[in-house]
Design a protein that fits this description.
Length: 212
């Protein structure tokens, strides 16, 4: 009776041990399978995020390129506006200086008139002082008088309004300045009005030229 029970217990204990081993193995396999599944999911997520990062970088690069183009366009527009403003300012300055030069011309004319009349020296001195102030102001503002007397005629800076006979100099030499001309920033603000030399052509000159 006792032996039978003992054998039964041994058999039962053996089955329990085998089940425990089986359960232990199954639990290990489940844990390993679970870890593999989690790694696969994690790797997929990583690959997905990498792809999203590449897409976002492409979008970012395109936006950055557009921003650079916009900045370049804006910079060109700004420079163009500044150039137009500077040109407009210079144009307005030119108009102003032309009006000032007309007043200066009137002072010169008045001074020439006074020289031939009986006027008080203080009046003449006052006009000369005004002209000196005009000349100082124009110099400070960059106005430069165009070279004229004794120089060859240059249509770019001179305006010929008459001729005078002169055998001692070559044709088209400036003999008289009727109205002074000025440059502003190396550009002609007003050309000089001048009278040029003109040699008289005689029959002798014509005959000598025909012989040549």
């Amino acid at each position: 009776m006792y032996e039978k029970t003992h054998n039964g217990d041994d058999k039962l204990n053996s089955e329990i041990t085998e089940n425990e081993v089986l359960n232990t193995d199954n639990n290990g396999d489940d844990k390993l399978n679970s870890e593999i599944t989690e790694n696969e999911v994690l790797n997929r997520e990583i690959e997905f995020l990498k792809g999203e990062l590449v897409k976002e970088k492409e979008v970012s690069d395109k936006n950055l390129s557009k921003l650079r183009y916009l900045m370049a366009d804006f910079d060109n527009y700004r420079k163009q506006i500044e150039k137009q403003m500077e040109s407009k300012i210079e144009e307005n300055r030119g108009y102003l200086f032309i009006k000032i030069l007309k007043i200066y011309d009137d002072c010169i004319l008045a001074l020439e008139t006074l020289k031939y009349g009986k006027y008080d020296s203080t009046v003449i001195g006052g006009i000369k002082g005004i002209m000196t102030n005009f000349e100082g102001f124009m110099k400070d503002e960059g106005l430069v008088e165009i070279e004229t007397m004794g120089t060859p005629f240059d249509p770019n800076v001179h305006d010929a309004i008459g001729f005078v006979s002169n055998e001692l100099v070559t044709d088209n030499t400036i003999m008289e300045v009727v109205r002074k001309g000025y440059l502003l920033n190396n550009k002609v603000l007003r050309p000089s009005s001048v009278i040029l030399s003109k040699r008289t052509v005689t029959n002798k000159d014509i005959n000598e030229k025909d012989k040549e």
